[in-house]
Amino acid sequence: QTPYRLNLESIPDDNTIDGANDLGKLSNKKLTEKEKIGFKEGGGRDKVDLYTFDLNQQREVNITLNKLSGNANIKLIDEDGETVLDKSTNKGKNSERIREVLEPGSYYVEVSVPGNNQTNYQLSVSSEKIDNVVYPPKKEETYKAGTWVAFENRVGLQIPKGWVGGVTSNYDETLILASSKKYPDVYVEVDTGNSYWTGSMGGLANKWSQPSELNGVTFQPQGKAKIKGNQITNTYVAKGSELEEKFYLVATVGPNYEVATVLVGGTENKLKDYKDIANNVVNNLDFPEPTDWESYLSDRWLSYYFNSDWLETDLNFNGVIDPWEEYLDQEISTGIFLYGDHSFNYHFDSYHEITGTIQSILSGTWDITNKNELALYYEDGSVSVKPIFGPDLDNEVLYSDTVYSVHNIN
User: Where are the domains of the chain?
Assistant: First the structure.
């Protein structure tokens, strides 16, 4: 007889966060894993593979899933193991790709198969240092390929290989790309326009289904705009121009309803070329993560100032100041103080030329609904629930249809 000690250790499966395959710290070097998924394993089917990696500084992370023999999807998950930062769910054997700018920390990549799919796959993960971000882009500057350009609504664009970019107006939400080699005659415009879309995807598609005019030229849509996921596409012909150029448009809506529109056109190439260029530009866009409104709004205050007719003096027919017209002029300032314990104070000041300043202070509790709405529950029992969008790079939010500046409470 031989005495012995038996130690049993439970090794977590790689379909759980605790058992995720560790890829280590990301650098410029690409990390590649070749595996298969969807096959029988240990009495069941292996439908999920999880990987984890670390970042020690802010970097752009690129994740690619390819060499597929069946359908598979990928998700990028935050270090809490629950929050999905981005995902790619193309159909069939099409490759999946995620590109995100991430802060230092630990992250997870989930590879999964829908239904009864089985497939081999190759997962590639790499990162690049970010040291050339431009905000806002300036009219006089030209930016080379690889440069990250940031727009006010936090959408970023890394100028694609073979292209340069710049702005042609005083508006920094429109970037024009040019290529001197493969596509010298192609016009490419990236526009974030109105920072946030507050309506429905159907409403946005209807907008891009209507003709528009610019400098005597009508951009005539060639049918109704199509909706696929978070993108809207359509094609146009420039009626009234000498060459009647063809254009392809793709508008992408981000997780916080940010909108980035890519318009590509010209006369020397086929429509397929314009679609390929547009899709390449879209793949170089980066949208911010969904806003955690609970965390962002706690111990902040939202300010709004409105000054009606403040440069105008109302005169009567005799050229004398009319006090009753001036009475209509007013200055309004609002502050909504949102505290970490979910109480709030609503300060509302209005100034009238004759009656002076009237101040109101209301109180209650606040919350965020699952539809990203800020709900204010007043002590008198009334409730105000309005959607909130943002924030942008200037720390402003769109609350209902009004822009508020956001400040720390201190």
Answer: 21-127, 133-286, 293-408
Q: Are 50 and 109 in contact (CB under 8 A)?
A: yes
d(CA 269, CA 150): 29
Q: What is the CA radius of gyration of the chain?
A: 27
**Number of Cβ within a 10 Å radius of residue 374:** 22
Q: Which fold has domain 293-408?
A: Lipocalin (2.40.128)
Q: pLDDT by residue for the chain (410 residues), tens digit each?
A: 666 665 544 445 667 888 899 999 887 788 999 999 998 877 778 899 999 999 988 888 889 999 999 999 999 999 888 888 888 888 888 888 888 878 889 999 999 999 889 999 999 998 887 766 787 788 778 888 888 888 888 888 989 988 999 887 655 578 888 886 788 889 898 988 766 776 778 888 998 999 988 778 899 999 999 999 899 999 999 998 888 889 999 999 988 888 899 999 988 888 899 999 999 999 999 888 788 898 889 888 898 865 544 334 444 444 444 443 433 444 557 789 999 899 999 987 765 656 666 678 899 999 999 878 999 999 999 999 999 988 888 888 988 888 888 888 86
DSSP conformation class of 275: H
What predicted TM-score, i.e. pTM, was given to this entire model? Answer: 0.65
Burial 287-306 (b: 16+ CB within 10 A, else e): bbbebebeebbeebbbeeee
For residue 156, give the nearest of 46, 282, 309 by alpha carbon.
282
Q: In 3D, which of 289, 280, 258, 282 has the Cα closest to residue 102? A: 289
- Rounded CA-CA distance 409/338 in Å is 9
CB 84 within 8 A of CB 73: no
Q: What is the CATH number of domain 21-127?
A: 2.60.120.380
The CA distances from residue 408 to 300, 337, 391, 395, in Å, are 5, 10, 14, 11
**Three-state DSSP class for residue 324:** helix
CATH topology of domain 133-286: Jelly Rolls (2.60.120)
How far apart are alpha carbons 253 and 261 in whole angstroms?
Answer: 9
